[in-house]
Prior knowledge:
Elements lengths: L10 H20 L2 H20 L6 H22 L19 H19 L3 H11 L5 H8 L3 H22 L3 H11 L1
Amino acid sequence: MPEQPPSPRDFASLYRRTVAPLRRHLARILGNPTEAQDIAHDAYLRVYPVVEKNSAEKPEALLYTTARRLAFNRLKRRRIAPFAPGQLEPELTASSAPGVVQQVMARQELQQLEQAIAQLPEGCRAVLLLRKIELLSHQEIADRLGLAISTVEKQHARALRLLRASLADQRPSPAELTLNSEVKS
């Protein structure tokens, strides 16, 4: 009796069949095999629940589409911040270590931002995070959340407006800044 081939929807089978070609494909896109391996890993993590539920008609196509989008998002991030830490010659760069005051201020600003984001309405927060963290387009967000593009655009604009207002409320007034500098003197 001939052995039955593994089900095309079986995740382990999908992984064995696609891991090497997917990494090569991503390495061509990214130009970096290490990044390609990371992106492939992320793609498998995202596709796994769908494949295990047998809800993907073409799991291999879903995997490649997901991986390609993740790779393009990585390329977008590279354009925004083209140099990775430690990429430049150390003797050619100024010390990038911030002082204690800058570190404390940065931590406080980050904490304020996190609090402001946490206070956003759920829909606005989801759209903002998908747009700013995952760098998805409004169309991709609309597809993922099952919303109209106009709704995504409005929620994104509202999230930014609410964040701006919340962070403006948290900034010290000029009088407080003057008072603080006089106390330190």
